[in-house]
Amino acid sequence: MKTDRLVGILTYLLQTDRATMPELAARFEVSRRTIQRDVDALCRAGIPLVSTRGGGGGVAIMDGYKLDRRLLSPGELQGILAGLRGLDSVSKTSSAEQFLQKVSARGEAPFSPDGDLVIDLASFYKDSLSEKIELLRRAIAQQELVRFHYYYGKGEADKRVEPYSLVFKWSDWYLFGFCTQRQDFRLYKLGRLWALTPAGEGFVPRPVPAEKRRFGSQMRDDYLVTALYCPAAKYRLVEERGPDSFSVAEDGRLLARWGFAGPEEALAWFLSFGDGAEVIDPPQMRERVREEAEKIAARHR
Question: Does the keyword Repeat apply (predicted)?
Answer without folding.
Answer: no
